[in-house]
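Anyone able to model this chain together with flavin-adenine dinucleotide?
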Amino acid sequence: MRTSLLLLSRSKRARHTVTHLGFARRAARRFIAGETCAEAMAAIQALNARGILATADHLGENVETRADAERATEDYLDLLDCIAASGVRSHASLKLTQLGLALDQSTCEANLARILSKARDIGTFVRIDMEDSTYTDRTLAVFRDMHAEFGNVGIVIQAYLYRSEADLRQLIAEGAAVRLCKGAYKEPPNVAFPRKRDVDANYLKLARMMLTEGRNGVRLAAATHDHRLIEAIKAEAAEHGIPKNAFEFQMLYGIRRDLQQQLADEGYTVRVYIPYGTEWYPYLMRRLAERPANLWFILKNLVRS
Ligand SMILES: Cc1cc2nc3c(=O)[nH]c(=O)nc-3n(C[C@H](O)[C@H](O)[C@H](O)COP(=O)(O)OP(=O)(O)OC[C@H]3O[C@@H](n4cnc5c(N)ncnc54)[C@H](O)[C@@H]3O)c2cc1C
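re: yes, here you go
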């Protein structure tokens, strides 16, 4: 099921069909904050009021023309305007293939530099999401070029990749801000751990590495809804006397809202990823692939419609 859903996430025909189905659009709203910047800001304001921070993602990936990459860049500049105007406590997250990475690296870097420069002006931070493993080297290369010039940029490491331990070690030495996630794409067994328990074990190993070796301002952003891993990270931090505000937990909009609130109430920094926009199809399919039981939620919407 996971493999089929991830393959479907790349199908243009399926994307066209699903995004035009009224019940699918309604169901998508469980995981997507809306289609406009104003809707995203409203979702963020509601979270901020409950002591939770945000990172906003204007959905989109794998653009095929420079004009589309330019449009996506403008969308991010608009998002930064919205963040500044509404005064919300939010970062931004983006995908490099949205800014033209698949077309050429220099176009992507020029677009990203415009976004980072504006983010710096308004005092916020931009996280570069990690996409499938065909982009890992190029994503790290762009990150490093930008990190040399901008202090307000971070990167993501995926625990399911065999290479991630070595990448993380180097990023810690470079003082990079790293979000650690398990990884959401379909990867071959020569690239990524095929078994979930190995991914989970590697996640904990990498999180421990960041907590214990990654001092000097290197901040762990532990992106997971896995309560066992979250408990283990809390215990590791307490054991090493690492204060609650020295790292953060990150979760996705609409997933484990109870746990998000519980951690915030316990005094941990919690940041929720807020996806919005019209290009929600691949994002939704990856959320279904992580938990095929979510399909029932979609089907219930079909029955109700
Ligand atoms: C803030 C954030 C940013 C991310 N950025 C990236 C990125 O840049 N690149 C990338 O490849 N991946 C990214 N991911 C996705 C990540 O890689 C995982 O695919 C996703 O978080 C599911 O893994 P998990 O750690 O929650 O653990 P799992 O073991 O998959 O899930 C643990 C528990 O969480 C709940 N849960 C998990 N997923 C769902 C879901 N879809 N619907 C309902 N409940 C669910 C369930 O209760 C489940 O039992 C990000 C995730 C987060 C939280």
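Residues 129-130, 156, 158, 181-185, 223-226, 250-252, 255-256, 273, 287, 290-291, 294 surround flavin-adenine dinucleotide (CB under 6 Å).
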